[in-house]
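COURSE: Structural Biology Practicum
ASSIGNMENT: Worksheet 4, Part C
STUDENT ID: 0417
INSTRUCTIONS: Below are two proteins. For each, the amino acid sequence is given first, followed by its structure token string. Answer the questions at the end about the second protein only.

PROTEIN I
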Amino acid sequence: MNTPQKPIKKTFLAGKWMPSDQETLNAWMKKTMDKEAASTRPLSPTLENFKNFIESNPKAYMFFTQMFNQVPANETKSPSGLPQVRDYNHMLRLFNVMMTHAPEYNDTGLVGCPFNAVLDWSMATTGGWAAFLTDEINAHLKAILNEWAVYLSSPESTAVLSDDPKNGWFGADAKKAMPKFAEEFQCDPSKPHYGFTSWDDFFTRPFRDGVRPVAEPDNTAVIVNACESAPYRIAHNVQLRDKFWLKAQPYALQFMMDNDPLAEQFVGGTIYQAFLSALSYHRWHSPVSGTVVKTRLIEGTYYSETLSEGSDPAGPNDSQGYIAEVATRALIFIEADDPAIGLMCFMAVGMAEVSTCDVHVYEGQHLTKGQQTGMFHFGGSTHCLFFRPGVNLEFDLHGQTPGLDSSNIPINARIATVKSGKA
């Protein structure tokens, strides 16, 4: 007699990039493994190069062997007995399948990070931790993600922009999750794929004019949300250097800003961090009116997460403070028109598949509050705002407490007001 199985509760992680229930991950993995098992296509040149590197470099071979061997024995199979990723060769073959597929819509939450799903358990092992901090390995991962980005920018990637009721981005389930899509975003529902020419064209879609008005555009004391994002953390009295890899993931300005000389001006100041939703808007807007002092792109990691958090079912979601020091990211330093704010900084942080931080502004350019400054491609992510010590901020998080359970605050909405006098 079979004992009835209790249903697994479906809960979701920050931004719905990955589901927190293993049942959903197993179903997606089985579908991908079935495609891999049926595929006769050889590894792409980029993946073949990565395979040759792993097998010719002793450290890489050790790390990519350890990361799969170190997955706990009771987690190598799903509840139904489905075998999970077994070794780096299996990993590469699964990657090969995903290189010619765009993310389908799925109301379970598995939306934008298929590579992250393959590496899900191995990322939290010591072998995975060491591997994904290695510069040479990250260079190969960047090449792989850049190759995938070519596909995601191609007309072929529009196959998922369909009206399939379950998996299409304009199907019944997606319309329930994004009921005002056609009203809010620039698109043409009468055209194939709503007029979008690729997955990336769809993903970086702009809002229609007037959908996200700028809060008090003429009031320089009001700071607006730089991304359509949910509050993750507010930290005060941030330090130049700190032990960012520990459980609390304290911020370390020197490493976040990659040893930039301007970092010292923010010691003792405030950092606001927020994360983006998978279903949301992925462009950045200026939180203040002011002049661009400097922009920087910083090469970094893609799949590193702090070991102090333990196993994170969604990869780096629980490691957002930590990855602000090590992940691929972009900095935009702005001298605000309001002297009570002065020099501040916006930092875009790439998470997992988000390998492109696309900066659209230049040094010396004057920005109007709410003006577009750049965008994320191919995924969602997290970002930070930096303020110097003495800037007296009153935050408005729209009734929320920062954390992984918070919800999006609209871009261009007020998130803080600077008060006269010292903090």
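PROTEIN II
(use this one for the questions)
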Amino acid sequence: MKKLGFGCMRFPLLDENDPKSIDFEQVERMLDIFLEKGFLYVDTAYPYHEGESEKAVKKALVERYPRTSFRLADKLPTFNLKEEADCPRIFQEQLEKTGVSYFDYYLIHCLTKDLYETAKKCKAFEFVQTMKEEGKVKEFGFSFHDTPEKLDEILSDHPEVDFVQLQINYLDWEAENVQSRACYEVARKHGKEIVIMEPIKGGSLIDLPKEIEADLRKADPEQDNASWAIRFAASLPGVRMVLSGMSSLEQMLDNISFMENFVPMSEEEQKIVLEAGEKIRKTVAIPCTGCEYCVAGCSQNIWIPEYFKLYNERQRTLSKGHDKAYDQAIQTHGKASDCIECHQCERMCPQHLPIVESLKKVSESFE
């Protein structure tokens, strides 16, 4: 397969403030071109777009194309598991929502130290292995957000998994909170193929500081920021797929332009982009990817990723030009200062960010 996968976490929207308002006309056009160009891998999950992503895949893809013309990945949501019976119940619901009789790839979603314990309690690994034996899952893996030591433990406990999905990008390669490089090396040690998520870190590797973007342009005027990020991830040995949450037709066409006939990075290119990552890390106040896992369970309806994005922009530009955007956002969402410090968001955060303390900074800055 070609190495670019269509991530269904960030579909284009008709209303930017409503993650359920998926722009089906644009999504269908994007999928038409994606498949026409020979790409196959489509990745969805139970919580994406507040539960609407799987339904969108059914409408825009499954009902419009033969089942053999694409490869579909879905995930068992560990954060929704309470008991063993939840595994078959949710799996059946996902088959119905997507309209398929089997998944090409099925993952246990978002394993962390705590969620691995949930998976063990609910016998999630045993369940997915059974689904594979019954032909309802072709390949079995898990997505991961924790330390390399924990990854090593899980892969030692479960050598039966076919692949692992990791957050890898040149910004997080040496980042202490993600440890992309170390996790990658653990997966390789266990002989597992790797699917990469967040190669552009939620879009944050597109809008780069001007001086860093200038350095990349000087190194290669033909490459844009997305190309540097996705090609870095796709060039790593053992990587079978790089997922991109493409939220517009323009983004997808750009990604296809350099991934249709993919050329791996040279050692010099890798050196250039990793040096850029070191510089960028010093400019990012809150390394949020905008995945919105923290938002769904927030009792105060605080738009955490958007506020962090605005805060990062303010810190980077030293400008108060984002006050209006914040004032507009709090018309439909809770303010940063509305946080009651329940820490539910931090338990859900794949980046392990100190969200509560960061919201205090946002409040001080904008309110």
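ANSWER KEY EXCERPT:
Q1: The CA atoms of residues 175 and 281 lie 8 Å apart.
Q2: The chain has 15 helices and eight strands.
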